[in-house]
Amino acid sequence: MSQPLDPAASPWQPDAAGGPTELFAPPSGEHGWLLRHASWLVAPEDGRGPALGRFLRMAMVAPMTQLTFLSFDLQVFLYGVFHTTRTARAGHFVFQAAVTFWLLVAACAVEGLRGDVAAPDWRSLNGSTGLAVLLLGWYLAMAWQHRLWAWFLAMVPVVGALYAGANLLYATWALPAGAPGAGSTALPLALDPWLWMAGSAFLVALSHAPEPKLPPRTVEGERWLTFGEYLRSAETATPRPLRALRVGLFPLWGTLDEWWASPRLMPYGVLLVMFRFGYRPELWHRCQQQVERAWASGNPALDYVGIGGGAMLRPRGGGETVAQPLEAPARRMP
């Protein structure tokens, strides 16, 4: 394990000012770095911070997960919290892989030493090779934390297939330099990878539509709310038309967030499939129980593994949080 098991030993604890909170797992080293060096974004002292920070928290929803790349506990926890329907899980499994595929296609345009994509030797390697190696190195670092070697081995053929397919597509359809009709790369506009990436990321975001509740920050307040609850909420003075407009912008922010998140979260979709087929049952049970306990409270945390909605982490000296007892989960994860 890469971090202590006792959440109470963490120097960072959730701020209980907004309601009951509980920490299930200690924040990672990446959490600590962001709390020390980007507190204006992830934990401003007054809870609001500058306008830019408020906007980014609204658009990014959970900066802690968007900006932590090796925080396994948080990533797998929020993957479960945000994807409670089959539509969301299937949409993310398929279209996050599509985003990553088109990112590899775009990287093919970064020429190798000779720039000859059809040549069979190493001198024809392009930017997609470096990106594929980077992805595998990243996934290996994630798997190493809990010795999930089979997870990494499962990702090798996945990345390999995406890499091979991207290079085959690029080698088949790439246009000569300066040819008319090319998009942002040497590919025809109909195969422009950035357009396909945007479309795939939009479909990932769209798969969230059946989710029953909207998370804090996307809506005002510290609690998860249904769309109807948000429009009727008395906790904000924002007029209802502006609230509806804010919800209407979700597809834009969601598309950008999912584009950024896809290479990071694609392996977690694979891991959850492996869990359901019996891989590492003790770890799967712990991850599942954390999500169930969080949803049993009605207010899963966004910045850490636990309960508290939009509550932010604070140094222990700023006021220690008392854990709130929970009853046994009322339901299992779908």
Question: Any overview of this molecule?
Answer:
With 334 residues, this protein is mostly helical. Helix content is 53%, strand content 3%. The strands form 2 sheets. A two-stranded antiparallel ribbon has the order 1-4.
Mean pLDDT, nearest integer?
A: 87
Instruction: Give the helix proportion (percent range).
Output: 40-55%
Overall shape: it is globular
H-E string: EEHHHHHHHHHHHHHEE
What is the tally of helical segments? 13
Strand content: under 5%
State the major sheet: 2 strands, antiparallel
Question: Segments where pLDDT lies below 50 for 5+ residues?
Answer: 113-117, 119-123, 318-334
Q: For the CA atoms, what is the radius of gyration?
A: 21 Å
Number of DSSP strand runs: 4
Query: Termini separation (Å)?
Result: 28 Å
Strand arrangement across the biggest beta sheet: 1-4
Instruction: Return the structural class.
Output: mainly alpha
